Amino acid sequence: MIERFIYTYVKIKYKGRNMTQNVSQKSKPKVKRFVFYATPEFVEEIEKIGAKYGINNRSELIRMALREFVERRANKNG
After folding, report:
1. Of residues 78 and 17, which shows the higher confidence score?
2. Hey, where are the domains in the chain?
3. Cα 73 to Cα 67: distance, rounded to the nearest angstrom
4. Is residue 59 within 8 Å of 5, Cβ to Cβ?
5. What is the pTM of this model?
6. What is the pLDDT of residue 3?
7. Would you say 11 and 74 are in contact if contact means Cβ atoms under 8 Å apart?
8. Where are the alpha helices (DSSP H) in the chain?
9. Residue 21 Cα distances to 9, 10, 32, 67, angstroms
């Protein structure tokens, strides 16, 4: 069975030095959601890697595996 995972990517740019400022309703960052479909073999490999590093949250492992790809794609598309 093919599983569906959603990875949420938020790109925030702040002007100035205050990185903890509140984001107003109008200036909230855009949220991009990417949907990935993973085959059972892929999920199995991810679980092996997670067991090696002591991480048992499968969704988090998928997110970690796809983070770099998604961020590059989001930056490329603007």
Report:
1. 78
2. 1-12+38-78
3. 10
4. yes
5. 0.42
6. 63
7. yes
8. 40-53, 58-77
9. 20, 16, 22, 25
pLDDT of residue 6: 61
* Mean of all residue pLDDT scores within the chain: 66
Residue in the block written with tokens 């909230």: 28
More confident residue, 32 or 45: 45
**CA–CA distances in Å: residue 6 to residues 20, 26, 35, 77:** 27, 25, 5, 19
Cβ pair 2, 39 in contact under 8 A: yes
- Residue identified by tokens 């205050």 is 18
Whether residue 47 contacts residue 66, with contact meaning beta carbons closer than 8 Å, is answered with no
Nearest to 47 by CA among 56, 60, 39: 56
